[in-house]
Amino acid sequence: MENPEQVFNGIVHDYAERLYWHVRRMVGSHEDADDLLQDIFLKIWSALPSFRGEAQLFTWVWRIATNETLNWLRKEKVRAALRFASADDLAAQKVAADPYFNGTAAEREIAKAIARLPDKQRQVFLLRWWDELSYEEISAITGTSVGALKASYHLAKEKLQLNLSDTDVSK
Question: Which of 26, 39, 102, 163 could form a cystine bridge with 113, CB 3.0-4.6 A?
């Protein structure tokens, strides 16, 4: 491997913004995404010597980011349960209260509906719909079969349509 510091700087340069938005869409708030992104880059830095190029760099980086984000979301569910709250409702509340959100009211409602999806469905939906990755790319990132990903995506779309039909997003 060439100079690890140069490789890492290249990863930060090439992927920081896309990773930020990937993580932010999963966690719902700027502060959480910003903190988590620092942890993700620390994980990438520490794992860089073990990267052997068997997967594409993009896939490897996205897998680390996705796994770290899912781990964070699992911890949030535990913290929410200890407060006798719903993690999905708390995630939607973070979207609603995020001072950095600069979308329309309809976009905020969509973001809140996405935040209420179960973690796996949210992950698949965002990777497929927002990041426009193929099911094969998502499979390489998540280690989930293409068939299971298609089913998760379909269920996520149905839940979003149901949740959004209950909300007047035309305000």
Answer: 163
Residue 34, Cα to own-chain centre: how many angstroms? 13
Residue 48 DSSP code? G
93, 47 contact by CB (below 8 A): no
Q: Nearest to residue 95, comparing CAs of 110, 80, 83?
A: 110
**Average per-residue pLDDT for the chain:** 84
Distance CA 51, CA 116 (A): 34
DSSP state letters, 26-42:
HH--HHHHHHHHHHHHH
**Domain 4-165 falls under CATH 3.40.50.2000:** no
How far apart CA 47 and CA 138 sit, in angstroms, is 21
